[in-house]
Structure formats: C-alpha cells, structure tokens
Write a structure and sequence with these properties.
Helix 3 packs antiparallel against helix 5, helix 4 packs across helix 15 and helix 5 packs across helix 6. Strands 1-4-5-15-10-11-14 form a 7-stranded mixed β-sheet, with helices on both faces. The protein has a domain of 248 residues: Rossmann fold. The radius of gyration is 20 Å and the shape is globular. The longest helix has 21 residues. The chain is built from 17 helices and 15 strands. It binds pyridoxal-5'-phosphate. Pyridoxal-5'-phosphate binds next to helix 12.
Length: 438
C-alpha cells in the first residue's frame, strides 16, 4: 500500500543508533592509502598528528555497524530525522508515471548534510582532549557546518577560507563568525604555506589546495588542535549513512522501494550517505535491479572521465595517496557555480563501487542543471543548492525516460542542501550571464 502523504516524517526515536560501514560488505577489499614518500600503506601513527584516534580507527574499521554516541544523537534531534518528500507537483508538471521522492538534508541549521559528519568529528576530537579544530573552506558550506558543530560541542574553530570566496561570499563568513569561529582569508600570514605565497603574490585569490595546506600546518603545529575534512574520506561517508538508513525506513512507510537512487557527487559524502545502505541491499539482499547513480558536473567529470589510480588529495601533493577516480591533482576545474563539486578526485569508496559495477555515474553541464533546479523550485518550493541541482536534473531526466517507456519507475534522490547562499548563481542564470556549457 502506498501512502498518499506528501511528507514522510519519523520520530526522534527513529534517528539511527549506528553508522553503517560498507567496508566489510564489499566484494573486494578497499585499496589502502599510501604514504606520499615511501609509497607504502600508511599506518595510524602517520595520521595521528592531524586526526583523533577514534576517527582513524573508523577510517580502517571492518565492523559493519559503529555505534553513534548519545551526545551526538541528542544534537541530531535538532534537525533529524529529516523528512522524505514525494514530489507530487513535479511529477504532475512532468506528466510522468514515475514516483519521485527526495530526502531533504537542507533542513539542517546550516542548510546542508555537512553538519552530520561535523558533529561526529567534533565529538571524537573533544573525547581525546582536543580544544580546537582547523579546517579549510571553499564556498563556505563546510566551514559553516564545522563552525556550528564546534560551537555546539564546546570547541574552538579556525577556518581558512579561500580568499576569493572570502571576498565574494561575505554572508558565509558572517555565519561562521556568528557560530563563534575564527575566519581568515587564505593565503594568510599565519602559516609558512600562506606567507610563502603572499611574498610572491600579495594579491593571490587562493585555492582550496592551499587552504588545506594552511589548515593542516596549523593543526600539525599545535598540541591543542587537530584538522577536520568534510568529504572524501571513509569516516566522512560513514557518518553520512544516517541519511540512507532513515530514507530506507521512510520508503518502507511509503510502501515503495526505489528503482533509481540518485545523489550529486563532489567528494562523495552526500551521495555515499544516501546510497551505501541501499548498496548493502544490492550486495546482501539481492536487490540487483536497483540503479544507483552519482551525478557530477560536466566541467569536473571525475567519475565519468577520470582515471582510476593513486593520486594526491591536494594540489600541493602533500596528503597520502588515495586510490580513486581522478582528473589529476593539478587539474584546476573551471569556475562553475557548484563550488562543492569542483574537486579533482573522488571518495575511494565511491570509486571502488563504480569499478565493481555496483553504481553508475552521469555528468551534466550547469545550463541544464539550473534549468531543472528552477523548474523544481517552482513546483516544490525549495531552491536547491547549485551542487544539488545536478541530482535534481538527473531525477528529472529519469522521470522523463519513465514517461517515454511508460514505466512507473520509483526515483529517490538526495536534496543535499538549499541554495539560499548561492542566489548569485541563480541570478547569473536568470540574467543570461551564466556560461551554460561549463
Ligand atoms: C559540499 C556539498 C556537496 C558536495 O560534497 P559531497 O561530499 O560530494 O556531498 C553537495 N551538496 C551540498 C549542498 C554541499 O554543501
């Protein structure tokens, strides 16, 4: 029996009690990260200067379920479980036999899924006596999430924000400061990495790679500080699996199971978050017909056009080498509006699943994704983040295909965030100044 509800909500007691770890369920083991110097698998001691031991353990864990601490679950109550919507107005506008569902992670206080991992990371650091976290932020979404999480957990937060965003996105900066974080433009004169650039290029606009170098140097140089990363790594995807676990319960209440599951892909965390609990069904419960699709920008088509090989996570080539689909660590993506999808690499877990044929990937250009995002907003009310517009567009592509084929396909996608801080990109589209083919 399918329900007639538009919005399927769960109670706070339905907040998942465990994170789901896909590593032990994979048909073949994940490839280990390698030391950038020796090219040998890295050990916990290599990561200990910048990450707390609990997160290092999670990174390599073979336990299928990892308990969520009560203090973290208590704070999740502020915004979880997030609702699952049936996009009835959109279905009607598309005149499709498809049933379209979306999981709304934009309801978090910071407007995206990123707070899910920020809270767990802040908690793990606090347990080990860390007083302060350092991180980088490009567009400002990750910095806002970590600033909020640090404040709620009682830690200090230091954010190195790429100079050009610092100047162009003043409200993200205000948001982080409202949560009590220190925010500096990167390159800054607080680190050797920043000073070296400033000496040569006083007007440098900065880059994400450089901001990472500054935040890591900050963390490695102080006993009270560790570093925090908002995507890509196994433990980050692990924390995001609460999205997919809730969505499975909600789909059960809806009386349906998805035929097509979709998430946008930058570093892989929101996609992995909704997808991994369903990929488990494919591996263990015979749900072999389920299609799971990661959607990326045509301008930074890591999964559809990248090579799968060991590569650095940062432009400066200092991080451990990760086995992933990559466009090369020196690849500088065009300045598309979906800042969160402009990453040269991919999550090792997502890359592994693609290689195993358990998931698929699609790429679209921003002209089509914004067109779809506006159509979605006019039907459903919510204005998606530019990153999320890729998932919205793919869902609409598959809904149209369902109509052509006359198949009542069930589509579920992750609405990873809202676009209220990115209205300049909507303005560019509406004014006709956007490069549609980037
Ligand atoms: C950061 C961000 C992304 C991209 O990061 P992933 O790790 O791939 O999820 C997608 N959507 C939103 C709203 C974001 O803030």
């Amino acid at each position: 029996m399918t329900t007639t509800d538009t919005k399927i909500t769960l109670s706070e007691s339905d907040i998942p009690t465990h994170f789901y770890n896909i590593a032990p369920d994979l048909p073949t083991p994940l490839e280990p990260p390698l030391h950038p110097g020796t090219k040998q698998p890295i050990g916990p001691e290599d990561l200990a200067p910048i990450f707390p031991m609990e997160l290092i353990k999670q990174e390599v864990s073979q336990e299928p379920f990892i308990e969520i601490p009560d203090e973290v679950r208590d704070i999740y109550r502020l915004y979880r479980p997030s609702p699952l919507y049936r996009a009835r107005a959109l279905e009607e506008a598309l005149d499709t036999p498809a049933h379209i569902y979306y999981k709304s992670e934009h309801v978090s206080p910071v407007g995206s899924h990123k707070l899910n991992t920020a809270l767990m990371q802040a908690w793990a650091n606090k347990q080990e006596g860390v007083k302060r976290l350092a991180t980088e932020t490009g567009a400002g979404q990750w910095g806002s999430a970590l600033a909020c999480a640090c404040q709620l957990m009682g830690l200090e937060c230091m954010v190195y924000m790429v100079r050009i965003s610092y100047d162009q996105k003043p409200y993200r900066k205000v948001m982080m400061k409202t949560y009590g974080a220190d925010v500096v433009a990167s390159p800054s004169n607080l680190t050797n990495a920043g000073r070296a650039i400033l000496e040569k290029h006083p007007d440098s606009p900065g880059s994400l790679g450089l901001a990472i170098s500054e935040a890591v140097e900050d963390a490695a140089g102080r006993d009270d500080t560790k570093y925090s990363l908002g995507s890509v790594l196994n433990h980050v995807l692990l924390h995001q699996t609460i999205i997919g676990q809730e969505a499975k319960k909600q789909m059960e209440i809806a009386g349906e199971y998805p035929d097509v599951l979709i998430g946008c892909h930058g570093g892989g965390s929101n996609f992995g978050g909704i997808a991994l609990p369903f990929v488990r069904d494919k591996i263990k419960d015979g749900k072999t017909d389920l299609r799971v699709i990661a959607v990326e920008p045509g301008a930074c088509a890591t999964l559809t056009q990248g090579k799968r090989e060991y590569d650095f996570g940062d432009v400066a080539a200092t991080t451990p080498l990760l086995m992933m689909h990559t466009l090369g660590h020196e690849f500088i993506p065009p300045p598309v509006h979906a800042g969160g999808l402009r990453y040269h690499g991919s999550a090792p877990i997502v890359s592994h699943l693609l290689n195993e044929g358990l998931i698929e990937a699609e790429a679209y250009f921003q002209g089509e994704t914004f067109k779809s995002a506006i159509e979605f907003a006019r039907c459903e009310g919510t204005i998606p983040a530019p990153e999320t517009s890729h998932a919205v567009h793919s869902a609409m592509v598959h809904a149209r295909k369902a109509k052509e084929e006359g198949k009542p396909t069930v589509i579920l996608f992750n609405l990873s965030g809202h676009g209220h801080f990115d209205l300049a990109s909507y303005q560019a589209y509406l004014d006709g100044t956007m490069d549609l083919n980037a």
